Amino acid sequence: MSKYCIFETVAGHCGIVVGPRGLLATYLPHKGRAKLERLIGQQHLGASEEPALMPNLVSAMRAYFEGRPARFAVRLDLSCLTDFRRRVLEACRRIPRGKTATYADLARAAGSPRATRAVGSAMANNPLPLVVPCHRVIRSDGSLGEFSSPRGVRQKEHMLRLEGAI
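Above: the chain sequence. Below: its structure as C-alpha coordinates.
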Protein backbone atom coordinates (compact mmCIF):
# COMPACT_ATOMS: atom_id res chain seq x y z
CA MET A 1 0.00 0.00 0.00
CA SER A 2 1.44 3.38 -0.93
CA LYS A 3 1.36 6.49 1.17
CA TYR A 4 1.64 10.15 0.21
CA CYS A 5 2.51 13.44 1.79
CA ILE A 6 1.73 16.94 0.52
CA PHE A 7 3.71 19.81 1.99
CA GLU A 8 4.32 23.49 1.43
CA THR A 9 7.52 25.00 0.08
CA VAL A 10 8.30 28.60 -0.79
CA ALA A 11 7.46 27.68 -4.41
CA GLY A 12 4.10 26.01 -3.70
CA HIS A 13 2.69 22.65 -2.61
CA CYS A 14 4.87 19.64 -3.40
CA GLY A 15 4.17 15.97 -2.88
CA ILE A 16 5.81 12.59 -2.52
CA VAL A 17 4.45 9.05 -2.84
CA VAL A 18 6.18 6.12 -1.16
CA GLY A 19 5.56 2.40 -1.59
CA PRO A 20 6.93 -0.59 0.32
CA ARG A 21 10.10 -0.63 -1.83
CA GLY A 22 10.87 3.10 -1.77
CA LEU A 23 10.01 6.44 -3.31
CA LEU A 24 7.57 6.09 -6.22
CA ALA A 25 6.89 9.70 -7.19
CA THR A 26 7.66 13.32 -6.46
CA TYR A 27 5.54 16.27 -7.46
CA LEU A 28 6.97 19.71 -8.19
CA PRO A 29 5.27 22.86 -6.87
CA HIS A 30 1.56 23.35 -7.51
CA LYS A 31 -0.40 26.48 -6.65
CA GLY A 32 -2.88 24.66 -4.45
CA ARG A 33 -3.10 21.55 -2.34
CA ALA A 34 -6.48 20.35 -3.69
CA LYS A 35 -5.34 19.98 -7.31
CA LEU A 36 -2.21 18.11 -6.25
CA GLU A 37 -4.23 15.84 -3.98
CA ARG A 38 -6.56 14.96 -6.88
CA LEU A 39 -3.60 14.27 -9.17
CA ILE A 40 -1.95 11.95 -6.64
CA GLY A 41 -5.28 10.20 -6.07
CA GLN A 42 -5.67 9.58 -9.82
CA GLN A 43 -2.11 8.36 -10.34
CA HIS A 44 -1.76 6.32 -7.14
CA LEU A 45 -5.12 4.68 -6.48
CA GLY A 46 -5.62 3.70 -2.88
CA ALA A 47 -2.69 5.71 -1.54
CA SER A 48 -3.32 7.03 1.95
CA GLU A 49 -2.04 10.27 3.37
CA GLU A 50 0.72 10.19 5.96
CA PRO A 51 1.80 13.74 6.88
CA ALA A 52 5.10 12.70 8.53
CA LEU A 53 6.30 10.67 5.56
CA MET A 54 10.07 10.81 4.77
CA PRO A 55 10.85 13.95 6.79
CA ASN A 56 14.45 14.11 5.50
CA LEU A 57 13.23 14.20 1.89
CA VAL A 58 10.57 16.81 2.70
CA SER A 59 13.23 18.97 4.39
CA ALA A 60 15.58 18.54 1.43
CA MET A 61 12.89 19.55 -1.06
CA ARG A 62 12.01 22.62 1.00
CA ALA A 63 15.70 23.57 1.21
CA TYR A 64 16.10 23.13 -2.55
CA PHE A 65 13.30 25.58 -3.37
CA GLU A 66 14.79 28.06 -0.89
CA GLY A 67 17.97 27.96 -2.98
CA ARG A 68 19.99 25.92 -0.51
CA PRO A 69 21.92 22.79 -1.49
CA ALA A 70 19.92 19.65 -0.84
CA ARG A 71 20.79 15.97 -0.85
CA PHE A 72 18.20 13.47 -2.02
CA ALA A 73 19.58 10.24 -0.58
CA VAL A 74 16.49 8.06 -0.70
CA ARG A 75 15.74 4.59 -1.98
CA LEU A 76 13.81 4.72 -5.25
CA ASP A 77 11.28 2.18 -6.44
CA LEU A 78 11.82 2.00 -10.20
CA SER A 79 10.35 -1.50 -10.51
CA CYS A 80 7.45 -0.42 -12.72
CA LEU A 81 9.82 1.02 -15.36
CA THR A 82 11.46 -0.71 -18.29
CA ASP A 83 15.15 -1.54 -18.07
CA PHE A 84 15.96 1.27 -20.52
CA ARG A 85 14.02 3.89 -18.52
CA ARG A 86 15.66 2.70 -15.30
CA ARG A 87 19.13 3.12 -16.86
CA VAL A 88 18.21 6.61 -18.13
CA LEU A 89 16.90 7.74 -14.73
CA GLU A 90 19.94 6.31 -12.95
CA ALA A 91 22.25 8.14 -15.39
CA CYS A 92 20.26 11.35 -14.93
CA ARG A 93 20.54 11.04 -11.17
CA ARG A 94 24.32 11.28 -11.52
CA ILE A 95 24.21 14.77 -13.13
CA PRO A 96 25.62 17.00 -10.38
CA ARG A 97 23.94 20.12 -9.02
CA GLY A 98 24.87 23.19 -11.05
CA LYS A 99 25.65 21.15 -14.19
CA THR A 100 23.64 20.15 -17.24
CA ALA A 101 23.83 17.31 -19.73
CA THR A 102 22.26 16.92 -23.16
CA TYR A 103 19.75 14.27 -24.12
CA ALA A 104 22.51 12.76 -26.28
CA ASP A 105 24.90 12.70 -23.28
CA LEU A 106 22.28 10.87 -21.28
CA ALA A 107 21.63 8.38 -24.07
CA ARG A 108 25.35 7.54 -24.13
CA ALA A 109 25.51 7.30 -20.33
CA ALA A 110 22.55 4.90 -20.37
CA GLY A 111 24.31 2.68 -22.90
CA SER A 112 22.05 3.54 -25.85
CA PRO A 113 23.85 6.31 -27.77
CA ARG A 114 21.30 6.45 -30.61
CA ALA A 115 18.25 6.67 -28.31
CA THR A 116 18.15 10.45 -27.89
CA ARG A 117 14.39 10.71 -28.56
CA ALA A 118 13.65 7.83 -26.21
CA VAL A 119 15.67 9.64 -23.53
CA GLY A 120 13.48 12.71 -24.12
CA SER A 121 10.40 10.56 -23.59
CA ALA A 122 11.89 9.08 -20.41
CA MET A 123 12.58 12.58 -19.10
CA ALA A 124 9.07 13.79 -19.99
CA ASN A 125 7.63 10.87 -18.02
CA ASN A 126 10.07 10.95 -15.10
CA PRO A 127 8.01 10.05 -12.01
CA LEU A 128 10.66 11.50 -9.67
CA PRO A 129 11.49 15.06 -10.77
CA LEU A 130 14.04 16.83 -8.59
CA VAL A 131 15.24 13.57 -6.99
CA VAL A 132 16.00 12.41 -10.55
CA PRO A 133 17.02 15.85 -11.87
CA CYS A 134 15.49 15.81 -15.34
CA HIS A 135 15.53 19.62 -15.25
CA ARG A 136 19.32 19.37 -15.79
CA VAL A 137 18.87 17.75 -19.21
CA ILE A 138 18.95 20.20 -22.11
CA ARG A 139 19.07 20.12 -25.90
CA SER A 140 22.34 19.77 -27.80
CA ASP A 141 22.02 23.35 -29.07
CA GLY A 142 22.05 24.61 -25.46
CA SER A 143 18.34 25.51 -25.34
CA LEU A 144 16.35 24.26 -22.38
CA GLY A 145 13.83 22.15 -24.27
CA GLU A 146 10.49 21.27 -22.72
CA PHE A 147 9.59 20.45 -19.13
CA SER A 148 6.63 18.49 -17.77
CA SER A 149 5.62 20.43 -14.69
CA PRO A 150 2.76 22.74 -13.73
CA ARG A 151 4.84 25.80 -14.76
CA GLY A 152 6.52 24.13 -17.75
CA VAL A 153 9.87 25.39 -19.00
CA ARG A 154 9.69 28.42 -16.63
CA GLN A 155 9.99 25.93 -13.75
CA LYS A 156 12.99 24.27 -15.41
CA GLU A 157 14.71 27.62 -15.90
CA HIS A 158 13.99 28.63 -12.30
CA MET A 159 15.44 25.37 -10.97
CA LEU A 160 18.58 25.69 -13.09
CA ARG A 161 19.01 29.28 -11.85
CA LEU A 162 18.63 28.12 -8.24
CA GLU A 163 21.53 25.75 -8.88
CA GLY A 164 23.67 28.28 -10.73
CA ALA A 165 23.62 26.16 -13.91
CA ILE A 166 22.47 29.09 -16.06
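Helices lie at 33-43, 55-65, 83-93, 103-109, 116-124, 153-163.
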